[in-house]
Design brief:
The protein is of the alpha+beta class. It is built from 6 helices and 7 strands; from the N terminus they run E-H-H-H-H-E-E-E-H-E-H-E-E.
């Protein structure tokens, strides 16, 4: 059974393998990270861990039993009880409900572990799969997204208000 784990230094090789194995698949629906991302992966990864340590962001990976990464689920810009959500899943698990189930789990963690009340996510109009995940996970459209927020494409912001449990 895959586990959603907080990103840590030991995940770096599996995250890099995940990004490389799925690069073309991701580029079909979101902006390609570019060669520089992979050339400077170690530095960028260290910067992510520093942002997480500073409480600016919270990064999670969905890890398979064999240690491989099946998906990345990230909370960006944690501020004033809200954050932006970003995620990507491996091509071989896409369409199986993995993203929806994990986004729902991350919504619970966002409220319980990070004290968040609201999550937002942007999806391009061309990315039907992501829009479906967000809708199934309880997000509702709240307005247009700037193309800069969705890889230069037209898109929509979605929002979900989170429930707090004591």
């Amino acid at each position: 059974m895959p586990e959603l784990e907080r990103l840590h230094a030991d995940h770096a090789p599996a995250v890099l393998a995940f990004e490389l194995a799925n690069r073309a698949y991701f580029a079909a629906s979101v902006s390609d990270r570019g060669d520089e991302y992979f050339d400077r992966f170690a530095d960028r990864y260290s910067a992510l861990l520093a942002e997480q340590e500073a409480g600016i962001c919270a990064f999670y990976v969905l890890v398979a039993e064999d240690g491989s990464v099946l998906g990345r689920f990230n909370l960006y810009d944690l501020e004033d009880g809200s954050a932006d959500l970003g995620y990507r899943v491996a091509q071989h698990v896409a369409g199986r409900g993995v993203a929806t189930a994990t986004v729902r789990q991350l919504c619970r963690l966002a409220a319980e572990r990070h004290g968040l009340r609201t999550l937002r996510a942007a999806a391009s109009h061309a990315n039907a799969a992501s829009r479906k995940v967000l809708t199934k996970a309880g997000f509702v459209p709240v307005g247009p997204a700037d193309p800069a927020d969705v890889g230069g494409q037209a898109g929509t912001w979605y929002q979900r208000d989170l429930e707090h449990r004591p």
